[in-house]
Amino acid sequence: MNFVSTPPTPHSHEPSASNNHRQTREIASLFCFGFVGTEPTPWIEQFLRDWQGAGYILFRRNMESAADLRSLNERLWKLAGAMRPLALVDQEGGPVLRLGDRGSPVPAMAEVGRTQDPRIARAFGRLLGHEVRAVGFSVNCAPVLDVHTHPHNPIIGRRAFSTDPHWVGVMGEALLLGLHDAGVLACAKHFPGHGDTALDSHLDLPVVSADRKRLYEVELAPFRHVLARRDPGMVMTAHVLYPSLDPELPATLSPHVLTILRKELAYDGVVVTDDLEMQAVSDRYTMEQVVEYGLRAGVDLFLICHDETKQRLAIEAAIRLVESGVVSKERIANSVRRIARIRSSLRGRVVPDEPTMRSLLRSPDHLALMDKLAHRDAAG
Q1: Among all residues, which ones are annotated catalytic?
Q2: Is residue 225 part of a domain?
Protein backbone atom coordinates (compact mmCIF):
# COMPACT_ATOMS: atom_id res chain seq x y z
CA MET A 1 0.00 0.00 0.00
CA ASN A 2 1.26 3.42 -0.91
CA PHE A 3 0.44 5.62 2.06
CA VAL A 4 1.59 9.20 2.06
CA SER A 5 3.89 10.25 4.89
CA THR A 6 2.61 13.81 5.15
CA PRO A 7 -0.26 14.82 7.45
CA PRO A 8 -3.67 14.29 5.90
CA THR A 9 -5.47 17.11 4.13
CA PRO A 10 -9.23 17.43 3.65
CA HIS A 11 -8.82 15.61 0.34
CA SER A 12 -6.19 13.08 1.37
CA HIS A 13 -6.73 11.34 4.66
CA GLU A 14 -4.26 8.50 4.19
CA PRO A 15 -2.69 6.83 7.23
CA SER A 16 0.89 7.90 7.81
CA ALA A 17 3.68 5.62 6.68
CA SER A 18 4.52 4.82 10.32
CA ASN A 19 1.28 2.86 10.79
CA ASN A 20 1.87 -0.81 10.30
CA HIS A 21 -0.33 -2.32 7.66
CA ARG A 22 -1.89 -4.91 9.91
CA GLN A 23 -3.20 -2.31 12.34
CA THR A 24 -4.52 -0.18 9.50
CA ARG A 25 -6.35 -3.16 8.03
CA GLU A 26 -7.80 -4.11 11.41
CA ILE A 27 -9.17 -0.61 11.86
CA ALA A 28 -10.49 -0.46 8.29
CA SER A 29 -12.34 -3.71 8.99
CA LEU A 30 -14.57 -1.73 11.38
CA PHE A 31 -16.04 0.35 8.55
CA CYS A 32 -18.64 -0.12 5.84
CA PHE A 33 -18.96 2.55 3.17
CA GLY A 34 -21.27 3.61 0.38
CA PHE A 35 -20.57 5.67 -2.72
CA VAL A 36 -22.37 7.64 -5.43
CA GLY A 37 -22.72 6.29 -8.95
CA THR A 38 -22.90 2.95 -10.70
CA GLU A 39 -19.14 2.39 -10.76
CA PRO A 40 -16.93 1.97 -7.67
CA THR A 41 -14.78 5.02 -7.02
CA PRO A 42 -10.97 4.69 -6.78
CA TRP A 43 -11.33 5.29 -3.03
CA ILE A 44 -13.83 2.44 -2.57
CA GLU A 45 -11.60 0.16 -4.63
CA GLN A 46 -8.65 1.00 -2.39
CA PHE A 47 -10.73 0.61 0.76
CA LEU A 48 -11.86 -2.90 -0.19
CA ARG A 49 -8.73 -4.18 -1.97
CA ASP A 50 -5.80 -2.65 -0.09
CA TRP A 51 -7.26 -1.78 3.30
CA GLN A 52 -9.51 -4.86 3.52
CA GLY A 53 -12.48 -2.79 4.70
CA ALA A 54 -15.45 -4.72 6.08
CA GLY A 55 -17.77 -4.04 3.18
CA TYR A 56 -20.10 -1.66 1.45
CA ILE A 57 -23.74 -0.67 1.11
CA LEU A 58 -25.61 0.04 -2.12
CA PHE A 59 -28.72 2.13 -2.77
CA ARG A 60 -30.96 2.78 -5.76
CA ARG A 61 -28.51 5.43 -6.92
CA ASN A 62 -25.98 2.63 -7.51
CA MET A 63 -28.36 0.41 -9.47
CA GLU A 64 -29.16 0.29 -13.17
CA SER A 65 -30.47 -3.02 -14.54
CA ALA A 66 -30.46 -6.17 -12.43
CA ALA A 67 -27.66 -7.55 -14.61
CA ASP A 68 -25.59 -4.40 -14.06
CA LEU A 69 -26.19 -4.60 -10.31
CA ARG A 70 -25.10 -8.24 -10.23
CA SER A 71 -21.95 -7.32 -12.16
CA LEU A 72 -21.21 -4.42 -9.83
CA ASN A 73 -21.48 -6.65 -6.78
CA GLU A 74 -19.30 -9.28 -8.44
CA ARG A 75 -16.64 -6.66 -9.13
CA LEU A 76 -16.75 -5.40 -5.54
CA TRP A 77 -16.56 -8.93 -4.15
CA LYS A 78 -13.46 -9.65 -6.22
CA LEU A 79 -11.78 -6.55 -4.81
CA ALA A 80 -12.29 -7.89 -1.30
CA GLY A 81 -10.69 -11.24 -2.09
CA ALA A 82 -11.13 -14.49 -0.17
CA MET A 83 -12.50 -12.73 2.93
CA ARG A 84 -15.87 -11.95 1.39
CA PRO A 85 -17.25 -8.45 1.98
CA LEU A 86 -20.34 -7.57 3.94
CA ALA A 87 -22.45 -6.43 0.98
CA LEU A 88 -25.38 -4.58 2.53
CA VAL A 89 -28.76 -3.52 1.15
CA ASP A 90 -32.05 -2.33 2.67
CA GLN A 91 -34.69 -4.60 1.15
CA GLU A 92 -37.48 -4.60 3.73
CA GLY A 93 -40.67 -4.51 1.67
CA GLY A 94 -43.20 -1.74 1.10
CA PRO A 95 -41.63 1.72 1.19
CA VAL A 96 -38.07 0.38 1.50
CA LEU A 97 -37.28 -1.75 -1.54
CA ARG A 98 -33.88 -0.76 -2.90
CA LEU A 99 -34.14 -3.23 -5.78
CA GLY A 100 -37.23 -1.41 -7.01
CA ASP A 101 -38.89 -3.17 -9.93
CA ARG A 102 -35.82 -5.35 -10.45
CA GLY A 103 -37.23 -7.54 -7.68
CA SER A 104 -40.67 -8.62 -6.50
CA PRO A 105 -43.06 -5.90 -5.29
CA VAL A 106 -43.01 -7.08 -1.68
CA PRO A 107 -45.67 -5.48 0.55
CA ALA A 108 -44.89 -3.51 3.67
CA MET A 109 -44.23 -5.62 6.75
CA ALA A 110 -47.33 -4.17 8.42
CA GLU A 111 -49.37 -6.21 5.91
CA VAL A 112 -47.34 -9.34 6.68
CA GLY A 113 -47.65 -8.67 10.40
CA ARG A 114 -51.44 -8.45 10.24
CA THR A 115 -51.59 -12.15 9.33
CA GLN A 116 -50.03 -13.05 12.69
CA ASP A 117 -48.69 -16.09 10.86
CA PRO A 118 -44.95 -16.68 11.32
CA ARG A 119 -44.96 -19.12 8.39
CA ILE A 120 -45.88 -16.27 6.05
CA ALA A 121 -43.23 -13.99 7.55
CA ARG A 122 -40.62 -16.71 7.11
CA ALA A 123 -41.67 -17.24 3.50
CA PHE A 124 -41.29 -13.51 2.84
CA GLY A 125 -37.88 -13.61 4.51
CA ARG A 126 -36.83 -16.39 2.14
CA LEU A 127 -38.18 -14.40 -0.81
CA LEU A 128 -36.25 -11.28 0.18
CA GLY A 129 -33.14 -13.32 0.91
CA HIS A 130 -33.17 -15.20 -2.40
CA GLU A 131 -33.65 -12.02 -4.40
CA VAL A 132 -30.94 -9.94 -2.72
CA ARG A 133 -28.52 -12.87 -2.85
CA ALA A 134 -29.34 -13.37 -6.53
CA VAL A 135 -27.86 -9.94 -7.35
CA GLY A 136 -24.88 -10.34 -5.02
CA PHE A 137 -25.78 -9.08 -1.55
CA SER A 138 -24.75 -10.96 1.59
CA VAL A 139 -26.57 -8.86 4.22
CA ASN A 140 -30.14 -7.60 4.20
CA CYS A 141 -30.73 -4.80 6.70
CA ALA A 142 -33.93 -6.34 8.06
CA PRO A 143 -36.03 -7.20 10.03
CA VAL A 144 -37.35 -3.97 11.48
CA LEU A 145 -38.01 -4.70 15.16
CA ASP A 146 -39.45 -1.29 15.95
CA VAL A 147 -42.91 -1.24 17.52
CA HIS A 148 -45.11 1.28 15.72
CA THR A 149 -46.66 3.12 18.66
CA HIS A 150 -46.55 6.78 17.56
CA PRO A 151 -49.41 7.62 15.16
CA HIS A 152 -47.40 10.39 13.50
CA ASN A 153 -44.10 8.56 13.17
CA PRO A 154 -42.65 9.85 9.87
CA ILE A 155 -40.07 7.12 9.29
CA ILE A 156 -41.27 3.75 10.65
CA GLY A 157 -45.03 3.42 10.14
CA ARG A 158 -45.79 0.55 7.76
CA ARG A 159 -42.22 -0.70 8.00
CA ALA A 160 -43.08 -2.17 11.43
CA PHE A 161 -44.85 -5.52 11.76
CA SER A 162 -47.24 -4.34 14.45
CA THR A 163 -48.16 -2.00 17.26
CA ASP A 164 -47.89 -5.02 19.57
CA PRO A 165 -44.35 -5.84 20.76
CA HIS A 166 -45.19 -9.55 20.99
CA TRP A 167 -46.06 -9.82 17.32
CA VAL A 168 -43.14 -7.65 16.26
CA GLY A 169 -40.84 -10.13 18.00
CA VAL A 170 -42.53 -13.26 16.68
CA MET A 171 -42.83 -12.07 13.09
CA GLY A 172 -39.38 -10.48 13.15
CA GLU A 173 -37.84 -13.75 14.27
CA ALA A 174 -39.64 -15.58 11.47
CA LEU A 175 -38.49 -13.13 8.78
CA LEU A 176 -34.93 -13.42 10.10
CA LEU A 177 -35.13 -17.22 9.82
CA GLY A 178 -36.30 -16.87 6.22
CA LEU A 179 -33.33 -14.67 5.37
CA HIS A 180 -31.03 -17.25 6.93
CA ASP A 181 -32.79 -20.03 4.97
CA ALA A 182 -31.72 -18.16 1.83
CA GLY A 183 -28.12 -17.83 3.04
CA VAL A 184 -28.30 -14.12 3.78
CA LEU A 185 -27.23 -12.45 7.02
CA ALA A 186 -29.90 -10.40 8.77
CA CYS A 187 -29.57 -7.07 10.56
CA ALA A 188 -32.18 -6.43 13.26
CA LYS A 189 -32.95 -2.72 13.63
CA HIS A 190 -33.19 -0.06 15.10
CA PHE A 191 -32.03 -0.80 18.66
CA PRO A 192 -33.50 -0.03 21.16
CA GLY A 193 -36.52 1.08 19.09
CA HIS A 194 -37.51 3.86 16.69
CA GLY A 195 -41.27 3.32 16.73
CA ASP A 196 -42.32 5.99 19.22
CA THR A 197 -40.73 8.99 17.50
CA ALA A 198 -42.29 12.06 15.90
CA LEU A 199 -39.11 12.97 14.00
CA ASP A 200 -37.11 11.30 11.25
CA SER A 201 -33.52 10.72 12.42
CA HIS A 202 -32.33 11.38 8.87
CA LEU A 203 -33.31 15.01 9.49
CA ASP A 204 -33.10 15.63 13.25
CA LEU A 205 -32.54 13.92 16.60
CA PRO A 206 -35.72 12.22 17.82
CA VAL A 207 -36.34 11.94 21.55
CA VAL A 208 -38.34 9.11 23.15
CA SER A 209 -39.34 10.37 26.59
CA ALA A 210 -40.89 7.12 27.84
CA ASP A 211 -39.75 5.92 31.24
CA ARG A 212 -37.43 2.96 31.65
CA LYS A 213 -40.25 0.53 32.54
CA ARG A 214 -42.17 1.34 29.37
CA LEU A 215 -39.03 1.04 27.21
CA TYR A 216 -38.33 -2.42 28.61
CA GLU A 217 -41.91 -3.57 28.14
CA VAL A 218 -42.43 -2.21 24.63
CA GLU A 219 -39.36 -1.05 22.69
CA LEU A 220 -36.91 -3.63 24.00
CA ALA A 221 -39.31 -6.57 24.03
CA PRO A 222 -38.94 -7.62 20.34
CA PHE A 223 -35.15 -7.46 20.57
CA ARG A 224 -35.23 -9.52 23.76
CA HIS A 225 -37.48 -12.09 22.09
CA VAL A 226 -35.34 -12.43 18.95
CA LEU A 227 -31.90 -12.32 20.57
CA ALA A 228 -32.85 -14.93 23.17
CA ARG A 229 -33.52 -17.35 20.31
CA ARG A 230 -31.42 -16.34 17.30
CA ASP A 231 -28.21 -14.64 16.26
CA PRO A 232 -29.31 -12.31 13.47
CA GLY A 233 -25.77 -11.60 12.33
CA MET A 234 -25.96 -7.88 13.07
CA VAL A 235 -27.96 -5.42 15.17
CA MET A 236 -28.29 -1.81 13.98
CA THR A 237 -28.52 1.06 16.44
CA ALA A 238 -30.95 3.99 16.40
CA HIS A 239 -29.89 7.63 16.27
CA VAL A 240 -32.49 8.39 18.94
CA LEU A 241 -32.15 9.92 22.40
CA TYR A 242 -33.77 8.03 25.30
CA PRO A 243 -33.36 10.30 28.36
CA SER A 244 -34.44 7.60 30.81
CA LEU A 245 -31.53 5.45 29.57
CA ASP A 246 -29.00 8.18 28.77
CA PRO A 247 -29.92 11.89 29.06
CA GLU A 248 -26.99 13.05 26.90
CA LEU A 249 -26.07 10.67 24.08
CA PRO A 250 -28.21 9.02 21.38
CA ALA A 251 -28.32 5.23 21.47
CA THR A 252 -25.66 4.79 18.77
CA LEU A 253 -23.09 6.60 20.92
CA SER A 254 -24.34 5.62 24.38
CA PRO A 255 -22.46 3.11 26.54
CA HIS A 256 -25.53 2.93 28.79
CA VAL A 257 -27.80 1.84 25.95
CA LEU A 258 -25.34 -0.55 24.32
CA THR A 259 -24.55 -2.12 27.70
CA ILE A 260 -28.21 -3.18 27.82
CA LEU A 261 -27.70 -4.90 24.49
CA ARG A 262 -24.42 -6.54 25.47
CA LYS A 263 -25.09 -7.43 29.09
CA GLU A 264 -28.82 -7.69 29.69
CA LEU A 265 -29.68 -9.15 26.28
CA ALA A 266 -26.37 -11.09 26.19
CA TYR A 267 -25.67 -10.13 22.58
CA ASP A 268 -22.09 -10.77 21.43
CA GLY A 269 -22.70 -10.24 17.72
CA VAL A 270 -21.88 -7.28 15.51
CA VAL A 271 -23.33 -3.90 16.49
CA VAL A 272 -23.55 -1.64 13.44
CA THR A 273 -24.53 2.01 13.37
CA ASP A 274 -27.19 3.47 11.18
CA ASP A 275 -25.74 5.85 8.60
CA LEU A 276 -23.50 8.33 10.43
CA GLU A 277 -24.29 11.04 7.91
CA MET A 278 -27.88 11.24 9.15
CA GLN A 279 -28.50 14.65 10.67
CA ALA A 280 -29.48 13.26 14.08
CA VAL A 281 -25.75 12.75 14.69
CA SER A 282 -23.95 14.68 11.93
CA ASP A 283 -25.47 18.01 13.00
CA ARG A 284 -24.30 17.51 16.59
CA TYR A 285 -20.96 15.72 16.48
CA THR A 286 -17.85 15.78 14.34
CA MET A 287 -16.87 12.55 12.66
CA GLU A 288 -13.96 12.27 15.08
CA GLN A 289 -16.35 12.53 18.03
CA VAL A 290 -18.72 10.01 16.52
CA VAL A 291 -15.95 7.44 16.11
CA GLU A 292 -14.59 8.02 19.62
CA TYR A 293 -17.98 7.89 21.34
CA GLY A 294 -19.04 4.93 19.23
CA LEU A 295 -15.94 2.90 20.07
CA ARG A 296 -16.28 3.75 23.75
CA ALA A 297 -19.95 2.73 23.66
CA GLY A 298 -19.30 -0.65 22.03
CA VAL A 299 -20.00 -0.15 18.33
CA ASP A 300 -18.26 -2.70 16.09
CA LEU A 301 -19.08 -1.50 12.58
CA PHE A 302 -19.43 2.12 11.44
CA LEU A 303 -21.68 2.79 8.46
CA ILE A 304 -20.98 5.91 6.36
CA CYS A 305 -23.05 5.87 3.20
CA HIS A 306 -21.99 8.77 0.99
CA ASP A 307 -19.17 11.19 1.68
CA GLU A 308 -15.60 10.07 0.91
CA THR A 309 -14.04 12.84 2.97
CA LYS A 310 -16.02 11.79 6.05
CA GLN A 311 -15.12 8.16 5.44
CA ARG A 312 -11.42 8.98 5.35
CA LEU A 313 -11.73 11.20 8.42
CA ALA A 314 -13.41 8.39 10.33
CA ILE A 315 -10.64 5.89 9.64
CA GLU A 316 -8.00 8.49 10.50
CA ALA A 317 -9.79 9.24 13.76
CA ALA A 318 -9.86 5.56 14.72
CA ILE A 319 -6.15 5.19 13.97
CA ARG A 320 -5.30 8.20 16.13
CA LEU A 321 -7.47 6.94 18.99
CA VAL A 322 -5.61 3.63 19.02
CA GLU A 323 -2.14 5.14 18.57
CA SER A 324 -2.75 7.60 21.41
CA GLY A 325 -4.06 4.89 23.73
CA VAL A 326 -7.49 6.52 24.09
CA VAL A 327 -8.97 3.30 22.69
CA SER A 328 -7.20 0.08 23.57
CA LYS A 329 -6.01 -2.45 21.03
CA GLU A 330 -8.03 -5.05 22.97
CA ARG A 331 -11.19 -3.02 22.39
CA ILE A 332 -10.48 -2.97 18.63
CA ALA A 333 -9.64 -6.68 18.67
CA ASN A 334 -13.05 -7.55 20.13
CA SER A 335 -14.80 -5.82 17.25
CA VAL A 336 -12.44 -7.32 14.68
CA ARG A 337 -13.27 -10.76 16.09
CA ARG A 338 -17.01 -10.26 15.84
CA ILE A 339 -16.85 -8.92 12.29
CA ALA A 340 -14.43 -11.63 11.16
CA ARG A 341 -16.79 -14.27 12.55
CA ILE A 342 -19.68 -13.24 10.32
CA ARG A 343 -17.45 -12.62 7.32
CA SER A 344 -15.97 -16.09 7.76
CA SER A 345 -19.45 -17.52 7.34
CA LEU A 346 -19.36 -16.15 3.78
CA ARG A 347 -16.14 -17.94 2.77
CA GLY A 348 -16.42 -19.71 -0.53
CA ARG A 349 -19.44 -17.68 -1.60
CA VAL A 350 -19.67 -16.42 -5.15
CA VAL A 351 -22.09 -13.99 -6.77
CA PRO A 352 -24.66 -16.12 -8.64
CA ASP A 353 -24.39 -16.19 -12.41
CA GLU A 354 -26.87 -14.26 -14.54
CA PRO A 355 -29.17 -17.21 -15.42
CA THR A 356 -29.51 -18.03 -11.70
CA MET A 357 -30.23 -14.39 -10.95
CA ARG A 358 -32.97 -14.25 -13.59
CA SER A 359 -34.57 -17.46 -12.28
CA LEU A 360 -34.92 -15.94 -8.81
CA LEU A 361 -35.96 -12.34 -9.40
CA ARG A 362 -39.76 -12.01 -9.57
CA SER A 363 -40.04 -15.79 -9.83
CA PRO A 364 -43.49 -17.42 -10.15
CA ASP A 365 -43.19 -18.74 -6.60
CA HIS A 366 -42.47 -15.26 -5.27
CA LEU A 367 -45.37 -13.69 -7.13
CA ALA A 368 -47.65 -16.50 -5.96
CA LEU A 369 -46.74 -15.76 -2.34
CA MET A 370 -47.80 -12.15 -2.77
CA ASP A 371 -51.06 -13.24 -4.38
CA LYS A 372 -51.67 -15.54 -1.44
CA LEU A 373 -51.22 -12.65 0.98
CA ALA A 374 -53.49 -10.40 -1.07
CA HIS A 375 -56.24 -13.03 -1.21
CA ARG A 376 -55.89 -13.67 2.51
CA ASP A 377 -56.34 -9.95 3.21
CA ALA A 378 -59.35 -9.82 0.88
CA ALA A 379 -60.93 -12.77 2.68
CA GLY A 380 -60.57 -10.75 5.82
Answers
A1: 202, 274
A2: yes
